[in-house]
């Protein structure tokens, strides 16, 4: 049953996004037969360092979605304090529901079944606009973000260029 | 014409195949692999993939992107580097004359390699129009070698971002760009330029076809910007004044002409019947010609842009993060001079279309002046200017600037959205 629910929900969201595309990103499936793996392309938000970039990312949904959050991974190279070196996105709403053992996040900040692809994307876009260097996934990037903004900008600019070339 | 591959869907109609693309690319790959073994170079993975893709779709690979392989995780012995020399030599050996763009990222280039690239660019047979060497640790004397090729090259765009060759390099680069007739865009972001570079840049802006400057993240400062734009502002003002005068004269002429025309009309009406008969004839014979013309237009779609003009024209100027601010003793005056010159350019230059002053704390007074210049520009009926400025100024001034100069909008944004939907 649970599988059926997730499939239905994802299909509904996909159809909705196709019918009414939301500004800032576009979504599709990596493989038409697998509804659990999505490919999204995020357009670098204007007035951020990522302006002009097109960042490809994959969303992998668990079978018991929406009880548990999907995993998001950037395929395009990204340089961001909250994106791991391997591309995995680290934002609070993508963390497994429940309390944080370190007490950094509250349960309300974490995954809730009401989140949709759209709300995830909105969070990711706001993450791009406003990096959080307090809980970094990419420590080097966070350090650079704090201490050497110029180098950080340069690395971001390079990622933006690369993402443009790769499209 | 006419023969279209059956597989082509309605969407792909416009895609054409390049005859022999697969053969030439396969040959390149073969030679490249051998060369890599000989030189001890790691093949560039992007290039290999793009080549394979090109072979599959029978499209020539026009753009070469060369970048180092990601450094292996700890514990694994380091791989040999990707060598640009190998790629350049392969282009020569395989006689691959379809390369338009050469993009190199993050490779440390020795003088020898740069000379090698220069030799390739100098050969007219390789139509390289865009060269990008980003963060390649190019030194000032290597820049000189590269700049010497500009005169005999096909280059239209040169991008040397993040090579910290400084003023020395800039002066040598500009010496090479002098009287250049092909290059349009020059990008020197984060090249450690200081105010001394302004004068060189101004010279090439005045005396060559280069008209788009990307100079973000340097320390050109007020003095450098003033040096760079002074002559251009004056030239633009002159031209604008001349144009206004001409327009005025023209308007006068038309007004006079109109008077005469009314007189003529009366006389010519007598002979209209004859003339109109002739016209219809002409129109009939014209129609088939017109049809032909239309067809041709449909095929070409884009009109060839006019060749760039040598002269004091600047179209795009990006000066983000250049320390254009009053935060030093005696700098206030410099800032005002500089802003004055920029304002004059804004007011009078009709071809100026992009100005980026982000991350320069220019302050309220200067922002105000720019705003007024923009108002004057609008009143003078010059084409719109896209502009970015710092937000650290008064709210209403900022809002006015944003309104008057509709903000930098990067291209590309619209078309691509549709493509991605799978």
Helix-strand blueprint:
The complex is a heterodimer of chains A (167) and B (422).
Chain A: H1 2-19, E1 25-29, E2 37-43, E3 54-60, E4 71-74, H2 117-129, H3 139-147, H4 149-166
Antiparallel strand pairs in A: 1-2, 2-3, 3-4
Chain B: H1 21-39, H2 45-57, E1 63-66, H3 84-93, E2 101-105, H4 111-122, E3 130-134, H5 140-149, E4 157-159, H6 166-177, E5 185-187, H7 197-207, E6 212-214, H8 221-268, H9 272-300, E7 316-318, H10 331-348, E8 354-356, H11 363-379, E9 386-388, H12 395-404, H13 413-420
Parallel strand pairs in B: 1-2, 2-3, 3-4, 4-5, 5-6, 6-7, 7-8, 8-9
Question: What is the level 1 CATH name of chain A?
Answer: Alpha Beta
Q: Which term fits the overall shape of chain B? A: globular
**Strand ordering within the main sheet of chain A:** 1-2-3-4
Strand order across the largest sheet of chain B? 1-2-3-4-5-6-7-8-9
Distance between the termini of chain B: 30 Å
Number of strands of chain A: 4
Helix residue percentage of chain A? 25-40%
Structure annotation, total helices of chain B: 13
Show unreliable segments of chain A: none
Number of helices of chain A: 4
CATH superfamily of chain A: Ubiquitin Conjugating Enzyme
Strand coverage percent of chain A: 5-15%
Largest sheet of chain B: 9 strands, parallel
Quote the distance from N terminus to C terminus of chain A.
Answer: 38 Å
Structure summary, number of beta strands of chain B: 9
- Radius of gyration of chain A from CA coordinates: 16 Å
């Amino acid at each position: 049953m649970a599988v059926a629910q997730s499939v239905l929900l994802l299909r509904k969201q996909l159809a909705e996004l196709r019918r009414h595309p939301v500004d800032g990103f576009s979504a599709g499936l990596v493989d038409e037969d697998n509804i659990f793996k999505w490919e999204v392309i995020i357009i670098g938000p204007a007035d951020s360092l990522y302006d002009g970039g097109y960042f490809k990312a994959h969303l992998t949904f668990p079978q018991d979605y929406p009880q548990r959050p999907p995993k998001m991974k950037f395929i395009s190279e990204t340089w961001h304090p909250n994106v791991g070196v391997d591309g995995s996105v680290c934002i609070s709403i993508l963390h497994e529901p429940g309390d944080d053992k370190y007490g950094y996040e509250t349960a309300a900040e974490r995954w809730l079944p009401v989140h949709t692809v759209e709300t995830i994307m909105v969070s990711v876009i706001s993450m791009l606009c406003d990096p959080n260097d307090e809980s970094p996934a990419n420590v080097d990037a966070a350090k650079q973000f704090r201490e050497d903004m110029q180098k950080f900008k340069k690395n971001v600019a390079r990622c933006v260029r690369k993402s443009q070339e790769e499209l | 014409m006419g023969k279209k591959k059956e597989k082509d869907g309605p969407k792909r109609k416009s895609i054409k195949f390049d005859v022999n693309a697969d053969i030439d690319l396969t040959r390149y790959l073969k030679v490249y692999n051998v060369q890599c073994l000989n030189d001890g170079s790691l093949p560039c993975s992007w290039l290999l993939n793009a080549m394979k893709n090109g072979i599959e779709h029978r499209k020539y690979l026009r753009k070469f992107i060369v970048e180092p392989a990601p450094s292996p995780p700890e514990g694994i012995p380091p791989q040999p580097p990707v060598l640009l020399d190998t790629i350049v030599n392969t282009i020569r050996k395989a006689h691959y004359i379809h390369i338009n763009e050469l993009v190199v990222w993050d490779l440390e280039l020795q003088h020898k390699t740069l000379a090698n690239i220069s030799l390739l660019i100098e050969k007219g047979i390789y139509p390289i129009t865009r060269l990008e060497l980003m963060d390649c640790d190019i030194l000032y004397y290597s820049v000189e070698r590269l700049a010497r090729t500009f005169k005999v090259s096909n280059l239209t765009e040169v991008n040397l971002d993040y090579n910290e060759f400084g003023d020395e390099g800039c002066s040598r680069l500009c010496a090479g760009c002098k009287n250049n007739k092909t290059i349009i865009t020059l990008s020197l972001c984060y090249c450690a330029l200081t105010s001394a570079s302004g004068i060189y840049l101004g010279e090439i802006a005045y005396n060559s076809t280069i008209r788009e400057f990307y100079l973000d993240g340097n320390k050109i400062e007020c003095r450098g910007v003033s040096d760079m734009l002074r002559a251009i502002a004056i030239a633009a003002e002159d031209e604008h004044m001349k144009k206004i005068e001409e327009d005025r004269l023209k308007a006068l002429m038309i007004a006079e002409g109109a008077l005469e025309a009314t007189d003529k009309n009366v006389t010519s009406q007598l002979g209209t019947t004859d003339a109109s008969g002739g016209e219809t004839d002409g129109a009939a014979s014209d129609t088939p010609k017109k049809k032909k013309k239309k067809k041709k237009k449909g095929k070409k779609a884009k009109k060839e842009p006019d060749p760039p003009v040598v002269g004091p024209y600047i179209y795009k100027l990006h000066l983000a993060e250049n320390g254009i601010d009053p935060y030093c003793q005696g700098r206030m005056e410099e800032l005002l001079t500089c802003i004055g010159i920029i304002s004059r350019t804004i007011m009078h230059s009709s071809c100026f279309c992009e100005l980026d002053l982000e991350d320069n704390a220019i302050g309220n007074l200067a922002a105000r002046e720019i705003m007024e210049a923009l108002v004057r520009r609008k009143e003078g009926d010059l084409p719109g200017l896209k502009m970015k400025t710092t937000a650290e100024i008064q709210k209403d001034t900022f809002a006015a600037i944003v309104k008057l100069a509709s903000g930098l909008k990067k291209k590309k944004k619209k078309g691509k959205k549709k493509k991605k939907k799978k």
